[in-house]
Amino acid sequence: MTIAMQNYLELIYELSLDGKKARVSDIAKQLGVSKPSVNNAVVVLAKNGYVDYEKYADIKLTNKGRKTAEFICSKHQTIKQLFIEVLNIDE
Questions:
Q1: Angle at 31 (CA atoms; ends 26, 33), nearest 5 degrees
Q2: In-domain check, residue 43
Q3: How many angstroms separate the CA atoms of 89 and 85, rounded?
Q4: How far apart are CA 32 and CA 64, in angstroms?
Q5: Rounded to an integer, what distance in angstroms lies between the CA atom of residue 21 and that of residue 25?
Q6: What is the H or E stretch that residue 51 is in?
Q7: What is the CATH number for 54?
Q8: N or C: which end of the chain has fewer CB within 10 A?
């Protein structure tokens, strides 16, 4: 999975944690990309079994997608802690 796809999956996961629905327009706005770019990425994620998605509907994580997103978020938190706590780099 590419870094870009990881970013999409992680954001979908984070949106679902806040009780919000993951929508193409919200993802595009937060990542600063176009809606067609998000749509293309979500279609790829759906083909690979990470999300359930139908055009104009909310994006929902599959079990595989949720587990993968949790792993990605955990990895990013660990790296962030390393930079902040060990290397003393500002957040």
A1: 90
A2: yes
A3: 8
A4: 26
A5: 11
A6: strand 51-52
A7: 1.10.10.10
A8: C
Q: Is residue 26 in a domain?
A: yes
| Element containing residue 38 per DSSP (H, E) | helix 35-47
Specify the DSSP element, H or E, that contains 78.
helix 63-81
pLDDT of residue 68: 96
Assigned domain for 62 exists: yes
On whether residue 16 sits in a domain, the answer given is: yes
- Determine the longest span between alpha carbons in the chain, in angstroms: 44
What total of structural domains would you count in the chain? 1
Q: Return the bridge partners of 60, or none.
A: 52
Mean per-residue pLDDT over the chain, rounded: 90
pLDDT, tens digit (0-9, with 9 covering 90-100), for 13-30: 999 987 778 999 999 999
Taking Cα atoms as reference points, which of 14, 3, 30, 4 lies closest to residue 66?
Answer: 14
Q: Find the domain containing 37 and state its range.
A: 3-86
